[in-house]
Amino acid sequence: MTTGEQFNVAVVGATGAVGAKMLETLDKKNFPIKDLLLLSSKRSAGTEIKFQNKTYTVQEATPEIFEGVDIALFSAGGSVSKKLAPEAVKRGAVVVDNTSAFRMDPEVPLVVPEVNEEDIEKHNGIIANPNCSTIQMVAALKPVQDLFGLSRVIVSTYQAVSGAGNEAAEELHDQSKAFLAGEELEANILPASGDKKHYPIAFNALPQIDVFQENGYTFEEMKMINETKKIMHDDSVHVAATCVRLPFFTSHAESVYVEVDKEGVTVEQLKEAIANADGITLQDDPTNQVYPTPLDAAGKSEVFVGRIRQDLDNTKGFHLWVVSDNLLKGAAWNSVQIAESLVKNNWLKK
Amino acid sequence: MTTGEQFNVAVVGATGAVGAKMLETLDKKNFPIKDLLLLSSKRSAGTEIKFQNKTYTVQEATPEIFEGVDIALFSAGGSVSKKLAPEAVKRGAVVVDNTSAFRMDPEVPLVVPEVNEEDIEKHNGIIANPNCSTIQMVAALKPVQDLFGLSRVIVSTYQAVSGAGNEAAEELHDQSKAFLAGEELEANILPASGDKKHYPIAFNALPQIDVFQENGYTFEEMKMINETKKIMHDDSVHVAATCVRLPFFTSHAESVYVEVDKEGVTVEQLKEAIANADGITLQDDPTNQVYPTPLDAAGKSEVFVGRIRQDLDNTKGFHLWVVSDNLLKGAAWNSVQIAESLVKNNWLKK
Q1: Which UniProt keywords apply (chains A, B) (predicted)?
Q2: Is the peptide bond before B191 cis (omega within 30 degrees of 0)?
Q3: Over its length of 350 residues, how does chain B's per-residue pLDDT go in tens digits?
Q4: Which domains are assigned to chain A?
C-alpha cells in the first residue's frame, strides 16, 4: 500500500475458520486499516478477539452496523451474505464475499487476482471470491491458457475438512482419537452439515462435498465447473470435476488433467510457464521426490504445482498435481488480495 | 468346489498383510486343502499362525520346500517371487503370484477372473495377480467395455496405506497418534520403503506410490496403465493414471473418467451394466447420499461402484467412483479366485 489512506474494514464471520485467517492475512499484509469491525451471528457476538495488540469484541452483524464501513469481507455463509451484503453496499461499503451467494451473478465479478484482476473494476459494490478448490486450479491453469490455449480440464480433488468449517475440523480430530482408541465414530457434520446423512471422515474418504444437484453432480463440483469458465472468460472450455473430502485438516490437493490447443508443447515449456506465473511455486523434481503435499502447503499463501507429466497417448494432454492452503489462497488470502487491488487501483468508489 | 479332490497349498509371505488375508479367504471359501505350508523369509520363520483350529509354524521359503506342493500363493515381494516361483514350478506347483515380478511377462497370464478367467488356461506354471488398484478398476470397466466399447480411461486414485504393507499401516497409526498429541511425526516407510526420502502420511496426501520411472510417472501409475491394457486385451485403449497415497488403512478408491465407443449410452444403461456384472455391487443413489466409501468397503470382497455421471460436455464420457478392499479383491481374494478356477476347470496340470 502506498496511498497512505486508511480504511474502515469489517470482517463478517470473524469467529469462523476463514474469519481467523482473514485477520491473520490483514495483519501479515499490513492492510491500511483505520477502524476494524469484527462481526458475527448473534450467537457468537461478545467473543473477544485480539488483533495487532488490541482486543476487539465481536458484534452482531446488522444492516445498520455497516454505516461508515469502506470494505466488508464476508465469510459467514451464503444466507448471511444474501441478506447483509446488499445492506452493506447500500451504506457505501464495497463487499468482498467469500460465499457462493453472488458468484454466478452476471453483475458480480468473480475474481482471482492473478487471473482476472481487471474484472474487479466492473464491480457494483460486490466482488465474489471463488470457491477454494476453484481458486487454486485456475491460478495454475491461467499461464497454461495464456501460452498454449486450454480446451479441456478433468479434475479429481483431495479436499481438507477445514473447507467445511471449524466444526468439521473438530469432527475429524474427535473421530480420529476415537478410531485410534477403538471406539465408535460419531458423525454429525460431514459430508455436508445441512444434509440428511452424516458419515465418518476419519480414516475414510467421502465422495460428496456440499449437497447433490439434480444432475448427479454435487454443488461443489458444479461450482468448480461453472466458476472456472466465468473466471477464465471461456465458456467453451470443457470442465469436469469429482470432489472428494479427505481426512486431513488443511490444504486441498487436485489431480488435474488438461488438454491444450497448441501442438508440440513440452513438459519443460509447461513447467517454465507455471514457474514464472504470479503466486505459483513449482515443486516438481521426481528424481529427488519433490512434489507438493497438503501438510507442506499449510500456512503458505502460494499455489504449489508438481508432478507435471505429458499424457502417454495424447500429446496435447498433461497431468498436474496442484496443492494450496484452502483457508489462505483458497479463501482469506484471495479476499484480502481483492481488497488490496480495490485500494491500490482506486476502484473502491464507483 | 465340487471335485472332492484336495490340494497341497503353500502361502509364501504368510506373516504379511496380504498373507493374513490369503488365509482368511482360503478359510472363508473353504478351499479344499490337504496340507497347508506357511512360508516366509528366514527372519519371520518360527512365527505361529492359527488356521482352522490348527496351529502352524511358519517355515523359511526355500526351493526344496515346494516339493509336493500343488498350488503356491506368493505375496512376499517381487524379489522373492523372481527367485522362488520358478523353483516351485520346477517342482510341479502352479504359482499364483501377487507381486509385480511376472505381470508383464508375455508368457504369464495376468488375471482378474471376472474379466479374463479364460487366460488362466494358458499358464506355464505361473499366473500373475494384478496390482490392487488395477484389479478393482478393470472389474468395473469390463461390463462397460463389453457393452459399449472403451476408448479412454483417466483415473486418479485414493489409496490406503495397507497397500504398502503392515509397516506402513503401523506408521499411519503411530503418526496419527503423535499428530493428535502435538508431537513431531517420524516417517520411515512411506511413500516407498526403498526410496531415498520419507514423508508423513498422517493427515496428509502423498502423490507418490512406488518409485518414479524415467518418464515422470511412478511405477504404480505405469502398472495401472500397462496392466489394464493386458488384462482387457486392448492395447488401443488410452489409459492415464495419477496415484495418491492417503491416510486411511483399508480400501482403495478411484475417480475414473471413461469414454465409450458407442453413441447415445445413458447413465441408466451404464448403471444397469455395472449392477449386473459379476463381483460388483452398485451403490449409487445421490438423492439418499448412497455411494461407496473406503471404511464401508473394508472387509468385503466385492468391488463397489457409485457416483456414475455423464460428462457435461462429452456425451460419450462418464465419471465413476470405484472402491474395494485392497487386501481382498485387490490381492488375497483375487488370488484365491484364480486358485479356485485352476481347480474347478482342471487347469492345474499342463
Answers
A1: Oxidoreductase
A2: yes
A3: 455 899 999 999 999 999 999 999 999 999 999 999 999 999 999 999 999 999 999 999 999 999 999 999 999 999 999 999 999 999 999 999 999 999 999 999 999 999 999 999 999 999 999 999 999 999 999 999 999 999 999 999 999 999 999 999 999 999 999 999 999 999 999 999 999 999 999 999 999 999 999 999 999 999 999 999 999 999 999 999 999 999 999 999 999 999 999 999 999 999 999 999 999 999 999 999 999 999 999 999 999 999 999 999 999 999 999 999 999 999 999 999 999 999 999 999 86
A4: 7-130+331-344 (3.40.50.720), 134-326 (3.30.360.10)
Q: Please, are residues B169 and B249 in contact by the beta-carbon 8 Å criterion?
A: yes
User: Do residues B49 and B22 touch, judged by C-beta distance below 8 A?
Assistant: no
A238 flagged as catalytic: no
ipTM above 0.90, yes or no: yes
Q: How far apart are CA A232 and CA A141, in angstroms?
A: 9
Phi first, then psi: give them for residue A114, nearest 5 degrees.
-65, -20
B161-195 burial code (b ≥16 CB/10 A, e <16) = bbbbbbebbebbbbbbbebeeeeebebebbbbeee
B166 touches chain A (CB under 8 A): no
Cell representation of residue A143: 499461464
* CA distance linking residue A102 with residue A109, whole number of Å: 9
A62 CB-near residues (< 8 Å, 6+ apart): A84
Residue B257 to residue B272: CA distance in whole angstroms? 18
What are the DSSP calls for A289-346, one per residue? TB---HHHHTT--SEEEEEEEE-SS-TTEEEEEEEE-TTIIIIIHHHHHHHHHHHHTT
In the block, which residue shows the cell 503392515? B166
Of the candidates A219, A217, A212, A185, the residue with the CA atom closest to the CA atom of residue A201: A185
Beta carbons within 10 angstroms of residue A32's beta carbon: 16
- How far does CA B105 lie from the centroid of its chain? 18
- 3-state DSSP assignment of residue A63: coil
Which of B152, B205, B319 faces A248 most closely, judged by CB atoms? B205
Distance separating alpha carbons of residues A259 and A239, to the nearest angstrom:
11
**What are the residues whose beta carbons fall under 8 Å from the beta carbon of A274, sequence distance 6 or more?**
A140, A143, A144, A280, A282, A305, A308, A320
Q: Name which of B156, B199, B267 is nearest A156 (Cβ-Cβ).
A: B156
Which residue of B lies nearest to A170 if distances are taken between CA atoms?
A: B180
Max CA distance (Å), chain B: 60
Interface probe, candidates B244, B285, B310, chain A, greatest A C-beta count within 10 A = B244
